[in-house]
Every structure is written in C-alpha cells, then in structure tokens.
Amino acid sequence: MRVSWGLDAAALKAQKQVEVCLDTSQAINGHxxxxxxxxxxxxxxxxxxxxxxxxxxxxxxxxxxxxHVFDVHGDIDxxxxxxxxxxxxxxxx
Length: 93
Known about the structure:
- By secondary structure, the protein is of the alpha+beta class.
- The chain has one domain (1-93).
- The protein is 25% helix and 12% strand.
- Strands 1-2 form a two-stranded antiparallel sheet.
- It is globular.
C-alpha cells in the first residue's frame, strides 16, 4: 500500500520535486504517528492516508486493510467505519 504525504520542502527550495511517501512494501516498520497542534491537519491527513491505503490495496487486488482509530473527541468521520463507544460510564468501559 502506498500513501503520498506531499513534496519535500527542502527539495522545493532547490527547485526539485521529490515526493515524500510511505510504501508499506518497502517499509521496515509500517507504524505511523501523527502529532501536531489543534488545526494542524492531523484529521485531514488521517482521512487522506486511510483513503489512499484502501484505494491502493483495492487496485492491487489485495485484502483491504483494517484501521483502528481511537477518537477521544468523537469528531473523526471516516467513510464505512464501524464504531464502538468506549466510556467508563458504559458496560464496555
């Protein structure tokens, strides 16, 4: 599966376009951590990453990946997601 993160900013200063991407077929470790201040685009990147990984797996006739997103605020809407409410006030907490 492949995810394009965009272009390398340092290469752009040298007027070169170098794509920054994650290719799980070549990665040693497939883990990703998205961190940043509020409004930095973490949710946008997460949705983009899930869409690109799902699309690339489908195009390669590979099994669709399964993602586990822990959303403490309940504001991340991902198409075709199944939800489980996790709360200390429920029987599942």
